[in-house]
Amino acid sequence: MPEGDTVFRAARLLDRSLSGQVLAVGDLRVPQHATADLAGSRVVATVSRGKHLLTRVVDAEGAALTLHTHLKMEGAWRVYADGQRWRRPAHQARAVLAVAGRTAVGFSLGVVDLLPTSAEDDVVGHLGPDLLGPGWGPEEAGSAVRRLLREPDRPVAHALLDQRNLAGIGNMYAAELCFVTGTHPLTPVGRVRDLPRMVAVAHRMLDVNKERATQATTGDLREPRWVYARERRPCRRCGSRVEVAMTGEPGRERATYWCPRCQPRP
Fold first, then answer.
1. Among residues 56, 94, 210, 254, which one is catalytic?
2. pTM of the model
3. Is 3 a catalytic residue?
4. Residue 15: its pLDDT value, please?
5. Nearest to 77 by CA among 57, 107, 52
6. Where in the chain is the domain with CATH 3.20.190.10?
7. Which of 9, 49, 51, 230 is catalytic?
8. Alpha-carbon span 246 to 226, nearest angstrom
9. What CATH code would you report for 4-124?
């Protein structure tokens, strides 16, 4: 599933491509909105909230609406110039938004919903502080720490993935954060040595990577990961073999990566 910085870049792409313009095409190719037509609507903005995308429009009757989308595992937004061939099959298109000169296509989107802009909290109000939100600061960081500590016995890697605690972290960043802070991913949240530092590192990681397509947590784009997806390979720091295990609630297991030497079990 895409991480928060990937979604941030998707929001910026849509915002730069569509905002301030009137939609010539506004098709939502999902059953619940098959009859909706956003053509004639003026695009106000697209913003990200954690892993959610909110495209705000004002329709021809003056109603403020929000197109809420989520990439889930396979989704992506792409923008094409007029006449440019789509690089994914048309049958995967779930939303098509065209303005003069370009078309934004949402492929294989996991969520496509249309709602009044005033009701956005119905779909994103449950989220914790957004690591890439414009208001991120000490207050938001403190709120994230408090939310994480609500379940002190929960493994920290699982708590980091819970978007109700803080929004934007996926499996890759959870693994890399635990490595960088020397924390075994199954350490109970309440026993993490310096949780505020972990939250601060999470913000720095996403903030740096939001400006580039290649995500790197090591500082080296040629070798961008410490442990994520490197099972059975040597740890870049100590040479021990990186380990992996499926952890989490039944039916929601995730691959969890760690170095047994750099991240000893609690």
1. 254
2. 0.95
3. yes
4. 98
5. 107
6. 4-124
7. 51
8. 18
9. 3.20.190.10
Q: Is 85 in the active site?
A: no
Find, among 100, 102, 13, the residue nearest to 55 by Cα: 13
What are the φ and ψ backbone dihedral angles of 155, each rounded to 5 degrees?
-60, 135
Residues of the chain falling short of pLDDT 70: none
* Helix, strand, coil percent values for the chain (each to nearest 5): 25, 25, 45
Our answer to whether residue 51 is catalytic in this structure is yes
| Predicted pLDDT at 2 | 85
Range(s) for CATH 1.10.8.50 in the chain?
Answer: 138-258
CATH 3.40.50.620 fits 138-258, yes or no: no
Is 116 annotated in the active site? no
Q: From the candidates 2, 129, 155, 185, give the one annotated as an active-site residue.
A: 2
Q: Which member of 3, 94, 140, 176 is catalytic?
A: 3
Q: Are 35 and 48 in contact (CB under 8 A)?
A: no
For 1-40, give one letter per residue: b (16+ CB within 10 A) or e: bbbbbbbbbbbeebbebbbebbbeebbbbbeebeeeebee
CB atoms within 10 A of CB 236: 17
